Amino acid sequence: MDAISALLTRASAARLIEPAPSPKDLETIFASAARAPDHGRLRPTRLLTIEGTAREKLGRAMAERLIASNPQAGEAAIAREAKKPLRAPYLIAVISVVDTDHPKIPEIEQVLSTGAAAQNIMLAAHALGYGCLWKTGGICYDDGIKALLGIQSGDHIVGFMYLGTIDPEIQDIEFDRPDGNSLVSEWR
Ligand SMILES: Cc1cc2nc3c(=O)[nH]c(=O)nc-3n(C[C@H](O)[C@H](O)[C@H](O)COP(=O)(O)O)c2cc1C
């Protein structure tokens, strides 16, 4: 798929199934992330891959977090939380390791660079024929989850990229997308 087609057709996948991207395609996806713009060449982005039973371990930690943060959470909600990482065969936690004391490059620019890397992952996956979904939620801002993943509390989980094959039996989520021109106004 050419770049413009990928940009104009990318969408979040409704449901992801096996197989995960092949090792060769993962190399391309990682290389695309590494190509994100990066002010000051600070290299803030780290990619943590989570597959197989590691997804179950993450799901258990997510369920424990839900119980701790919401003692009223019912059995069904706890079970649903534990199963969330199983909704794709392959996850990438996209992390921004920030230098908050940098004299020139503010933290937000470092996080934006990692956000661009996350978007490159989505676009590369789409161009290679896979589905991708960018997931966040409270777990991204939770020190316990960060510690479990080996991330310092001051660093940022920009998102969990859920990757896999688009389930052909589930319709894509369709909605009205803004027209590009509607974002634009001229400043004089
Ligand atoms: C920073 C960020 C966080 C997101 N977190 C979630 C999330 O937690 N759960 C989810 O279903 N989608 C999440 N999304 C995906 C958006 O919901 C999705 O992009 C939006 O609905 C538009 O759909 P599209 O990707 O098909 O354009 C996130 C997207 C971004 C950029």
Tell me what you see in this structure.
- By secondary structure, the protein is of the alpha+beta class.
- The protein has a domain at 19-50 and 84-165: 3-Layer(aba) Sandwich (NADH Oxidase).
- Helix content is 39%, strand content 17%.
- The protein contains 6 helices and 5 strands; from the N terminus they run αβαβααβαβαβ.
- Strands 1, 2, 3, 4 and 5 form a 5-stranded antiparallel β-sheet that branches.
- The radius of gyration is 18 Å and the shape is globular.
- The mean pLDDT is 96.
- The protein binds flavin mononucleotide.
- Residues 11-12, 134-137, 159 line the site of flavin mononucleotide.
The overall average pLDDT, rounded, is 96
Number of helices: 6
What is the name of the CATH architecture of the domain at 19-50 and 84-165?
A: 3-Layer(aba) Sandwich
Superfamily (CATH H level) name of the domain at 19-50 and 84-165? NADH Oxidase
Whole-angstrom Rg: 18 Å
- CATH domain topology of the domain at 19-50 and 84-165: NADH Oxidase
Keywords for this structure?
binds flavin mononucleotide, globular, 6 helices, five-stranded antiparallel sheet, single chain, alpha+beta, NADH Oxidase, 188 residues
Topology, please?
Blueprint: H1 3-9, E1 16-17, H2 23-34, E2 45-51, H3 53-69, H4 75-83, E3 90-96, H5 107-127, E4 131-135, H6 143-149, E5 156-166
Antiparallel strand pairs: 1-5, 2-3, 3-5, 4-5
This protein binds flavin mononucleotide (FMN).
Flavin mononucleotide binds at residues 11-12, 134-137, 159.
